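Whiteboard transcription, Tuesday session. T.W. wrote the structure tokens on the left side:
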């Protein structure tokens, strides 16, 4: 099997987890670039980022680098750690946006970004050489 084929081997659990962690970023990236203003900007305002547009663009760049690194298996462990760090910031930002600490995602909590960050840490651990 070629290196390129191995990077997308869906029978390998580590590859599958890496791809899932990567692909989940793309809707988040999309909502930072579409519209005028982008829908994500409201979250950055609500979470108290100053200036919100700068931090939204910074998140866009960080998430894009992490997603592409994970997707194509480039510096996978570092891309996964970058993704986890970004998601940790997002989890904390959710608390600021809500004005309180909530856990359940369907109630506005940080459950989803925390789970996703832990999954990214798992990817980093699986790919560490």
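and on the right, the sequence the group agreed on:
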């Amino acid at each position: 099997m070629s290196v390129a084929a191995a990077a997308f081997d869906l029978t390998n659990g580590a590859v599958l987890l890496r791809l899932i962690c990567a692909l989940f970023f793309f809707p988040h990236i999309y909502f930072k670039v579409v519209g005028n203003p982008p829908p994500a900007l409201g979250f950055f305002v609500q979470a108290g980022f100053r200036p919100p547009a700068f931090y939204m663009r910074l998140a866009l760049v960080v998430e894009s680098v992490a997603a592409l690194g994970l997707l194509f298996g480039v510096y996978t462990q570092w891309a996964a750690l970058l993704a986890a760090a970004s998601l940790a910031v997002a989890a904390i930002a959710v608390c600021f946006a809500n004005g309180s600490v909530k856990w359940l995602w369907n109630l506005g909590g940080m459950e989803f970004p925390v789970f996703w960050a832990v999954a990214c840490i798992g990817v980093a651990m699986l790919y560490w050489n």
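Someone added at the bottom: Residues 8-127 form one domain.
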